[in-house]
Amino acid sequence: MYEFEFETPATVADAVAALQGDEAQALGGGQTLLPTMKQRLASPSRLVSLSGIAEMSGVSADAGTVSIGGATTHGAVAAGAGAYPALADLAGHIGDPAVRNRGTIGGSLANNDPSADYPAAALASGATIVTNAREIAADDFFDGMFGTALNEGEIITRVNFPVPEAANYQKFLQPASRFALVGVFVARTSDGVRVAVTGASETGVHRWSEAEAALSANFSASALEGLAVDADGMISDLHGSGAYRAHLVAVLTKRAVMAAG
Amino acid sequence: MPKDHGIGASPKRREDIRFLTGNGNYTDDMNIAGQAYIHFLRSDVAHGTINGIDTAAAAAMPGVVKIFTSVDFEGVGGVPCGWEITDRQGNAMQEPKHPILAEGKVRYVGEMIAAVIAETADLARDAAEAIDLDITDLPAVVNMRAALVDGSPKVHDDLTSNLCYDWGFVEENRDAVDAAIKGAAHVTTLELVNNRLIANPMEPRVCIGDYDRSSGDSTLFTTSQNPHVVRLLMGAFVLGIPEHKLRVVSPDVGGGFGTKIFHYAEEAFSTFAAKVCNRAVKWTSSRSEAFMSDAHGRDHVTKIELALDGDNNFVAVRTDTHANMGAYLSTFAPAVPTWLHGTLMAGNYKTPLIYVNVKAVFTNTVPVDAYRGAGRPEATFQLERVIDKAAIELGVDPIALRRQNFVTEFPYATPVAVEYDTGDYNATMDKLEQMADFAGFEARRAESEKNGKLRGLGVNTYIEACGIAPSNLVGQLGARAGLYESATVRVNATGGLVVMTGSHSHGQGHETSFPQVIAEMIGIDESMIEIVHGDTAKVPMGMGTYGSRSLAVGGSAMVRATEKIINKAKKIAAHLMEASDADIELKDGTFSVAGTDKSVAWGDVTLAAYVPHNYPLEDIEPGLEETAFYDPANFTYPAGAYACEVEVDKETGQVTIERMMAADDFGNIVNPMIVDGQVHGGLAQGIGQALLEGCIYDDDGQLLSASFMDYAMPRADDLPNFEVDHSCQTPCTHNPLGVKGCGEAGAIGSPPSVVNAVVNALRSGGADVTHVDMPLSPSRVWEAMQS
Amino acid sequence: MTEVSMTVNGVSVGGSVEGRTLLSSFLREQLGLTGTHVGCDTSQCGACVVHVNGDAVKSCTILAVEANGAEVATIEGQAAEDGTLSVVQQAFQDHHGLQCGFCTPGMVMSTLALLKDNPKPSEAEVRKYLEGNICRCTGYHNIVRAIMAASGQDVAIAAE
Fold it and tell me: What is the value of pTM for the model shown?
């Protein structure tokens, strides 16, 4: 790592102030940022830790919404988001136990790794990403691989998930990293069904609109018969071709629907 | 009733206490007062011409002690290769110089170009980034077949081509094998890849060089499986330091699996730089560095043909292999695809005619050398895969086909130059059949089918040659070192023993199992015996631990030294009891005179040896310390039968190992608990090769599987509980313990049964598949199912 | 440089660190607690697992300054003062759950965290929980047996 200054603000306001300046970077749980810095692929001159900001931590549920502070660890979500079981289950399968004790939802969403789990949950749930400055609908938040609508120095303070009537996340593991080779989150609400896919596309997390339309009309695996995903634009690497990923999207969507019941 | 003591018992491992409490002493745990830190600047291109290296800015950075480039090593030797292969025409292999720091060209991603010594590791790395490299990229060659085409980029300009050698074995049999295949009733042909692997012991490599200006002594602390070999190679061939002025220490080592056998340039650099800088220097490999600097393993591309007569007897085997050497020859690299591979092509079968051709090829990749099994897994895999394919083609039972062709009479001289001293391949297959419940397989398959899964069963046998090796034989085959082992047994006045062994323990538990042998011989408690290893200043000589040789060779040296001790002690006892030497018996730690009630305790004799008041000084010297060197008369030949049951998810291609069974014949067993553990670990690595692990370069020579993010290490939930058995025991006939070695068996024996099982499963689902290349990742299996 | 202080295995310690100093480096290099090992640089192998405020974390992926004021537990603090091994440590020895010993400290610390949350895990739960701890020697078979034994359960999960 390159050397940097380290700040531990106690409030969002202090954090925002500390993040002013070109080379400052927010630090959530550090489970992606610190390895990246070890490889010297990131070189912030100042790291602003968000883990000491009490108002950004914790899970609450009320009136059909689960609200999660941006600095809440995956482990805390797994334990505390029982009002949204599919989300708690997803959080309980991110990385490994030690990673879940450090990594945070805000960090994951802000990084928007194309193989991360939370973006699929946020997009399928129609979550609202709350920052120090504004509220951003998940549909407007994700912008390709590693891209988001966040401005420089903007912090995810909270994420609000409307709890669907039924939901399930299916993750197929990349055998080495254990990130999602493909992950599919299906959520059924009174407004219809949303299907979000992670790991598969060169454009990052995205919705599968054909499946959504079919499932909104008939929420069952049989509704997906005949639907196929185009392999064009799918990631192709040493762990699987674009065609394989496209195939997995269909398989996992079916399994998610069956598991969501 | 299991024994609780001596040979055959399973005492808890004494070394575990320090490992379980954080008190291990691994190389990176060591620090020497005043030490500086090394950072190696490594090439990020696979092939290029070095036009210039400007270190001025880096040298001026804070904390920098010195920066080295190749010009600092003028007159210093290259890293030597320990084995010379003679090709089919009788010519020596092509052997390029392997410089410590790149000279003029870089030839693989990860090759060291420069080294910064600085006050901290971070400062060294900071400065390395400030070195200004002027490198012109050259086209890289990664694919072995492409490397042999005229006009291919040459890895070494001063060699005639990228061909290291073209080896034929047994060359005199070539025409007869060709004729037998031409005239055979049936020939099964299989082309396959033995995937390139990265050993990845959990402890990355570390070196600490130290120099004492007052004495002129150099010391290297290093993560090695064989410190004496490093001392010999580095001292004699690289740095010109005589052995009495060079000490090499390998303390606790966190796993080796072959990749810590070799003498590495980092070791020579650290030793050299400590002297130049007149202070200790330390290098700790990151895992990322390990991926591009530890020698890789396997990487064979093979075509094998198995010829059978009308009664399904094997009549000939012909194989053609391309073996990747990488950019330079690592210590034992040339021997792996030749003598450790070709000599095993008979397998467990009495095939009368065998011809093996191996073309070793230079490419712009990390050097490739021995990895757990080394050559023998490659032989086993192709043979056991082609037999399964033959069974499919002929419509016969794969086990019956194997049994029909088993070698059943011993000793058996194979047509590939080795003589199996003993074995019973039907016995291990019988045991496997008992363990595996083959009769119940169809019911299990039906159950899997209900869950949407294809179930497959795969079986194979294996044989390996280990207990490496008879020095006179390997000398004829091109080895540049002897492969004996030594041990010194020192008995202290009060009866305790210290054994200085050249074998090195980096997980094998020698500190526990070696004392069991001596305890059995003398009849004393294991707690009276201590094992010292891993330090050239303490152990007289040693060739180290690899090739499942520690107990068979190192243990035999220890037995020989202990026999000398006992013989001398009997003379002392005879004197004390005023009896004849020939009448002295040793049992349960007590010497007695046969046919009398006279006896004297072990401790009384050892005390007399050091307090020789009443002692036959005219006949024997005081003291009780003996050294023995043991050079084996033959290899040992562990063998076994393995089975695997898998489930394959029809929709995703995901393979799950449901059962993994191993019936091994290791000869006599000293510590069954440790043997089980060795097999478990080997199975995990074999399953890893079969399902998960693959080292992948792109066409430009960039390593794509460059971290645990892309190189799939087996995790706990990738593996089943293993079912292992070693009750079939045909003791080795030529070493004093009757032991054969168990360290590599699991890794050698398991990949074919996994692949056989998956092919069996896929065929049961209707796919016309006879082979899938490893690793059988979900995507590859899914693609195979689409056929 | 920043001054940090924390409690490690019940002992108050302090030191001066750079921002970039990892907790694993602080433990190993400044405190001399070399039982915590570093086996990778991508936060996967788990050889470096310690507990920070009761939670298992990868000490190579947390800055020393982030652990300022924390309660840290490492492998060195697990045996009794007289050297008696803890239940988990003893189970690893009894069941040959280690070979080279390099991954072992992380395995033990992860096991403690598992059994705190789930005192009687199933074998499948044990294997899943160890997702972040890589062992290259044992094939995990005897590690799983050791953990089952440490949780007071039947270890006859394989006939051998």
Answer: 0.97
The pLDDT tens digits of the residues spanning A213-229 come to 999 999 999 999 999 99
B233 and B352, same domain (yes or no): no
Calpha distance B692→B735 (Å, rounded): 38
Residue C63 touches chain A, beta carbons under 8 Å: yes
Chains in contact with C, where contact requires at least 3 CB pairs less than 8 Å apart: A, B
Instruction: Kindly state whether residues B643 and B733 are assigned to the same domain.
Output: yes
The answer to whether C1 contacts chain A (CB < 8 Å) is no
**Between chains, do B676 and C160 touch, taking CB under 8 Å as contact?**
yes
| ipTM of the complex, rounded to two decimals | 0.97
Instruction: Please answer yes or no on whether B707 and C42 come within 8 Å at the CB atom.
Output: yes
B32, B129: one domain = yes
Contacts of B505 (CB under 8 A, 6+ apart): B15, B511, B531, B533, B534, B545, B550
Yes or no, beta carbons of C131 and B717 under 8 Å apart: yes
Query: Spelled out in words, what is the top-level CATH class assigned to the domain A59-162?
Result: alpha beta
For domain C87-150, say whether CATH 3.30.390.50 is its number: no
Residue range(s) occupied by CATH 3.30.465.10 in chain A: 59-162
- The DSSP call for residue B235 is I
The chain B residue lying nearest C103, using CA atoms, is: B202
CATH number of A166-260: 3.30.390.50
The pLDDT tens digits of the residues spanning A95-107 come to: 999 999 999 999 9
Chain A interface, best mutation among B652, B691, B695, B699, by max A CB count within 10 A? B652
Q: Name every chain B residue with its beta carbon within 8 A of the beta carbon of C18.
A: 122
Measure the CA–CA gap between B47 and B141, rounded to whole angstroms: 8
Contact B336, B376 (CB under 8 A): no
Q: Is A251 on the interface with B (CB under 8 A)?
A: yes
Q: Is residue B178 part of a domain?
A: no
Residue B434 structure tokens: 């008992």
Return the DSSP state at B328.
S
Closest approach of B379 to chain A, Cα-based (Å):
26
> Whose structure tokens read 């990860």?
B110
- Is residue B165 domain-resident? no
CA dist A217 → A55, A165, A214, C80, C123 (Å) = 41, 15, 5, 64, 42
Residues spanned by the domain of B592: 484-630
What is the nearest CA distance from B441 to chain A, expressed in angstroms?
Answer: 28
Provide the domain count of chain B: 3
Considering the domain architecture, whether residues B369 and B513 belong to the same structural domain is answered as no
Q: What is the pLDDT of residues B3-57, one digit of tens each?
A: 888 999 999 999 999 999 999 999 999 999 999 999 999 999 999 999 999 999 9
* Residue B486 token pair: 């030594």
The token duo for A247 is: 């195939």
Report whether A197 contacts A172 (CB < 8 A).
no
Decide if B88 contacts B167 (C-beta within 8 A): yes
Interface check for B288 against chain A (CB to CB < 8 A): the answer is yes
The DSSP bridge partners found for residue A82 are none
The correct answer on CATH 3.30.43.10 for the domain covering A5-49 is: yes
Q: What CATH number should be reported for the domain whose range is C2-77? A: 3.10.20.30
Considering only alpha carbons, which residue of chain C is nearest residue A79? C117
Tell whether B743 is covered by a domain: yes
User: Does the pLDDT at position B198 exceed 80?
Assistant: yes
> CB A244 to CB B696 under 8 A?
no
At B540 the pLDDT is: 87
Q: Domain ranges in chain C?
A: 2-77, 87-150
- Residue of chain A whose alpha carbon sits nearest to that of C46: A98
Q: Which residue of B has its CA nearest to A241?
A: B779
Q: What is the CATH number of the domain that holds B611?
A: 3.30.365.10
| B600 and B672 inside one domain | no
A2 part of contact set with chain B, CB < 8 Å: yes
For the segment B276-303, the average pLDDT, to the nearest whole number, is: 98
pLDDT, mean over chain B: 97
User: What is the nearest CA distance from B336 to chain A, expressed in angstroms?
Assistant: 27
* Separation of alpha carbons B693 and B326, rounded Å: 18
Enumerate neighbours of B (3 or more CB pairs within 8 A).
Answer: A, C
| Identity of the residue in B122, B288, B696 whose CB atom sits nearest the CB atom of A238 | B696
